[in-house]
Structure formats: C-alpha cells, structure tokens
Amino acid sequence: MITINTVEEFNKYKSEYDNYVFKESVYFKIDILSGGSIQSGGDILSDGYIRSDVSIHSGGSIQSGGSIQSGGSIQSGGDILSDVSILSGGYILSDGDIQSGGDILSGGDILSDVSIQSYGDIQSGGSIQSGGDIRSGGSIRGKIEKVFGIKTKTFIEIHHYYIIQVIDTHIKIGCELHTKKEWKKFTDKEILAMEGKQALKFWKENKKWILGL
C-alpha cells in the first residue's frame, strides 16, 4: 500500500491532464483535492476528505473519514464508505455497500450490489438500484428501480418497532424478507419461529395495515 503524508508526495503521482494514478491501494493521511481524476488499482483510504473535479475510481473500496466528492463519477470495486457525505456530479457505482454518515447525492444513477444506507438524504438524478436494503435517515429522491435485487416501481419504508420496507412483490420486516403472498399465509407458529413472542404480538397488531401497503 502507498501512504501519502504530504501534498508533495501526492503530486508525484500526477500524470497527464492532472490525473492521479495509483497502481495499488493508497492511504491518504491528508485531505485530497484534485483537478483531475483519482484512480487506484486497489483501495482508496483517507483520514480526511477526497475531492476530484473529474472522477474517483477504485478497483477496491473507497473509504473516507471525511466527504467523498467528485465532479463526475464515483466507482468502486468494493464498498464506498464515508463518515460525512458522498457527493457526485455523475453516477455512483459500487460492487459493495454505499454508506454515508450524511447525504448521498448524485447527478446520475446510484447503483450498489449490496446496500445503500445514509443517515441523511439520498438523492439521484437517475435511477437508484440496490442488491439489498435502501435506508435513509432523511428523504429519498430519485427513480427507485431495484431493492433487494428485485425490480420494483414502489418503495415504502416505515420506521416502527421493526423497520418495514415494501416493494411491489415483497415486504421486509426487520431482517425477514418474503413475498406478500408468503406473509399473508404465515401461521402464528411460523411467525413465532422468526423472532419469538414479540414478533407474533407485533404481527397480530399490525398485519392488516402492513398487508394493505
């Protein structure tokens, strides 16, 4: 792994058109601001923010203790994780999780093979597609096309005793994801086996309106 402690060390990796190219994983111990793209064949790790006017692309994960910001796309072969925010003028694409301590804002698509989770808003100028959950502490704006890896035109999230997520064909309550037809047919014994008496009590009290969503 390459460790960058100073701006001078960072500038040694500048190529033509002000792009910065690292053939292996890189760890920034300083804030990074680039007028060109930032590219790594491995992970991109930073104690501070990572900002590029063009794009940030990594063959591995992108992880930052500050914000991750790009005038263009942000693309990762692993997770994209920020303690602050993830902001892109283009698309955000991850083969892993996309997680932010603040907002996730994209001028294009937001695509994750695993999950999209934000303590702030999630906003996309294109589609939002996730192989798992989509969770937001604020609002979600954009065309949601896939949740749990399943195509859908509908997405509803309700924070109750359990987090309830509803798409066209499925309902997820807590960690239990099943089709709407399966939820309708579950017996008390089957619900009890999921998470005990509290789950059964919750289901009896809320079944009707949940199935009506």
> Structural class from helices and strands?
alpha/beta
Spans of at least 5 consecutive residues whose pLDDT stays below 50 are: none
The number of helices is 3
Please give the radius of gyration in angstroms. 20 Å
Number of strands: 26
**Percent in helix:** 10-25%
Order of helices and strands: EHEEEEEEEEEEEEEEEEEEEEEEEEEHH
- Mean of the pLDDT scores? 95
Largest β sheet strand count, sense and barrel closure: 14 strands, mixed
How many domains make up the coordinates?
Answer: 2
Percent of residues in β-strands: 35-45%
Termini separation (Å)?
Answer: 50 Å
Please describe what this structure looks like.
This protein is α/β, with parallel strands linked by helices and 213 residues long. It folds into two domains: 2-153, no CATH class; 165-211, no CATH class. Helix content is 16%, strand content 44%. It is built from three helices and 26 strands. It has helices spanning 7-11, 180-185, 188-211; strands at residues 2-4, 20-22, 26-28, 32-34, 38-40, 44-46, 50-52, 56-58, 62-64, 68-70, 74-76, 80-82, 86-88, 92-94, 98-100, 104-106, 110-112, 116-118, 122-130, 134-136, 140-147, 150-151, 155-159, 163-167, 170-173, 176-179. The strands form three sheets. Strands 2, 4, 5, 7, 8, 10, 11, 13, 14, 16, 17, 19, 21 and 22 form a 14-stranded mixed beta sheet that branches. The chain is elongated, with a radius of gyration of 20 Å.
